[in-house]
């Protein structure tokens, strides 16, 4: 599970669920709309972070 936080408010903005084991790597795309993640479950996921679409 990956949680995206608003650090200034201290609230979680979004929870990304999909990996079945611990996440070992994260990297934001230059424009900040995509988040690739790698896990010990031997998967890589590409998350769409368009937060306006999530609300």
UniProtKB/TrEMBL annotation:
GO CC entries: transferase complex
Protein name: Mitochondrial division protein 1
Keyword Cytoplasm among UniProt keywords: no
Role noted for this protein: Involved in mitochondrial fission. Acts as an adapter protein required to form mitochondrial fission complexes. Formation of these complexes is required to promote constriction and fission of the mitochondrial compartment at a late step in mitochondrial division.
Organism: Mytilinidion resinicola
Repeat listed as a keyword: yes
Similarity section: Belongs to the WD repeat MDV1/CAF4 family.
Pfam families per record: WD40
Keyword annotations from UniProtKB, A to Z: Repeat, WD repeat
């Amino acid at each position: 599970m990956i949680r995206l936080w608003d650090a200034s408010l201290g609230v979680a903005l979004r929870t990304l669920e999909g990996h079945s084991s611990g996440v070992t790597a994260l990297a934001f795309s230059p424009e900040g709309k995509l988040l690739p993640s790698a896990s010990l479950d031997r998967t890589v996921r590409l998350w769409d972070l368009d937060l306006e679409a999530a609300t």
